[in-house]
User: Fold this.
Amino acid sequence: MKPTRLISLDALRGFTIAAMILVNYPGTWDQVYPPLLHASWNGLTMTDFIYPFFLFIVGVSIAFAYSKRLQAGFPKPEMYKKILTRSLKIFLVGVFLNLIPAFDFSDMRIAGVLQRIAIVFLVCAFLFLNSDWKKQAYLAGSILVGYWLAMTLIPTPDEGLVMLEPGRNLAAWIDRILLPGKMWEGNWDPEGLFSTFPAIVTGILGMLAGHILLSDKNQHLKANYLMALGLPLVLLGLLWAQVFPINKHLWTSSFTLVTGGAAFLALGACYFLVDILGKQKGTRIGIIFGANAITVYVLADVLSLVFYGLEIGGQSLNMHFLTAFSGIGLPLKFSSMVYALLFVGINFIPAYLLYQRKIFIKL
Assistant:
C-alpha cells in the first residue's frame, strides 16, 4: 500500500469543520431553521451528521498517516508517545474551551466535542497499529451489539427500569457515577463516557474506509467498494432503529451505522468526483479549512466571545447584525443563518492566511 494524499479527503474534512461552525454559531438560537439544529432526542437532522462525519474522517486520516509511518519503519514506542501527546493536547484544549471566559474551575465540564475526538483518536490509533482490519471490524460490531444490549436490557440502578429517556438511561447513570465535573444537560452529557464507546466505532469505520483507499485495487473499484458498503450500513442502521432508536445524544448503534454509512457514501462520491474524475472546482475552500481543521474550530470558539459577548452601543455584534437585517424586512431565521455564514467567512480569513504561509498547526 502506498499512502497518497487525497484531495477529496482534505476537502471533506474542511467542509465538515465549516459546517460545524455554521450550526454552532447562528445569529440567535431563538431563530434557527430546523435542519440546522440537532434532533431534540430521537431522530436525525442534517446537523446530526456533522460530528460523526468528522470522527469518521479522523479514522480515515489515521489509516493514511500511520500506514505511511509503518512503511517508513518508525518504531512503535515513538509513535505511541506522539499519539498520547497529541491526544492529551486536544483533550486539554477542549477543557480550556469549556472554561473560558470565566475560568470557574468549580463549575468545570470535563466532557466535550474535542475531548471525545481526543479519545477516539487515541483508541483508534492504537488499534490501527496493533490489529488488522478484520479484528477492527469484529471489535466494531462487538461494541455496537454490546452497547445495544446494555442500554436496552440493564435497568438503571437508581430507577430499576430500562429507559432511553433524557437523563434516565444507563449511559447517563454511568456518567453521573464516573464523569467528573458538571454535565452539559445537568444530569447527563451528550459527550459522556459510556456513549464514547460507539463513537469509537465511528472512528473504526473510518479506518476501514482508509484500508479500502490504501489497497492496491484500481480507483474505480475503491469508489465502488466505499459506496457498496455505505448503503447496507445505512439500511442496517435503519432496521436496527426499530428496536434501538437513532439518537445522537446517546450515540446509539443505529445512529452509528446510519451516519457511518452516510460517511462511506459521501467519501466514495467525493473520491469518485474529485480524485478520479478530477472535478476539483470548489474544493479549495474545503482544503484551506481542513489544513488546520481543529485550530479553526478552536479559533471559532474564541472569536465567538467577541462576536457574542462584546457589547457596543448596548448590543452584541450578532444582535447588531440581526437588527440591521430585520430592519430591512428580512425574516429573522434567514438573517440568523446569514450571520452564521458570515461567521464561517470570518473564520476562513485566518485559515487562509495560515494556509498561504504553509503553517499547519497540529494539536
